[in-house]
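Researcher: We plan to redesign the surface later, but first we want a full-length starting point. Tokens attached.
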């Protein structure tokens, strides 16, 4: 099967907390929730969550990467499906991330390819 993604998915140890953004009144409605990342690329992120997240909702994300730095991004949820009895498998695209932070993911991909 041919990979159709423009950016390579990476399996890595990262920590992510998500906080939902509401369009009304520009307030957040959920305190940060920790999720388990299954893959990440410059374009988006896949993760396992104990909470269901509706498609087309937006979250502020704090992503602690392998260097222990924190990347701040806005994630749009594109899918969230039940994953057995213990939660949901979700996917999101980055709709807001600084280019310097996206480059950190690219650099990791280069070094990860050499393994």
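Model: Full-length starting sequence:
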């Amino acid at each position: 099967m041919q990979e159709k993604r423009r950016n390579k998915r990476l399996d890595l140890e990262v920590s992510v907390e998500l906080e939902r953004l509401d369009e009304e009144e520009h307030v957040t409605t959920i305190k940060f929730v920790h999720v388990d990342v299954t893959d990440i690329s410059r374009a988006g992120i896949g993760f396992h969550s104990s909470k269901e997240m509706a498609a087309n909702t937006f979250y502020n994300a704090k992503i602690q990467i392998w260097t222990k730095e924190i990347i701040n991004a806005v994630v749009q949820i594109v899918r969230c499906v039940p994953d057995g009895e213990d939660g949901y498998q979700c996917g999101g695209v980055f709709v807001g991330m600084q280019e310097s932070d996206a480059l950190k993911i690219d650099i990791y991909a280069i070094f990860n390819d050499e393994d």
